[in-house]
């Protein structure tokens, strides 16, 4: 599967899990969303380093490829 898709789905999954856990702990409204955003961001920084490296490598490789010449 494409590394960017895996990383994006993993980030969304962490956000949803954080949202659910914080809801069960009693957070509501805008506080719930803000806390879930922060918690999922920290968790993704710690838990998704391999996926982030794969995305970075994919983007770097794409940028290093020579661009096709036009009109040739």
From TrEMBL:
Pfam families: DUF4229. It comes from the Bacteria. The chain crosses the membrane at residues 5-24, 30-48. Keywords: Membrane, Transmembrane, Transmembrane helix. This is DUF4229 domain-containing protein. It comes from Nonomuraea soli.
């Amino acid at each position: 599967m494409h590394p960017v898709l895996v990383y994006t789905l993993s980030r969304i999954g962490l956000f949803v899990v954080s949202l659910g856990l914080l809801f069960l702990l009693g957070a509501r409204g805008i506080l719930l969303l803000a806390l879930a955003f922060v918690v999922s961001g920290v968790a993704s920084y710690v838990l998704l380093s391999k996926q982030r490296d794969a995305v970075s490598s994919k983007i770097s490789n794409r940028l290093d490829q020579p661009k096709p010449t036009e009109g040739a």
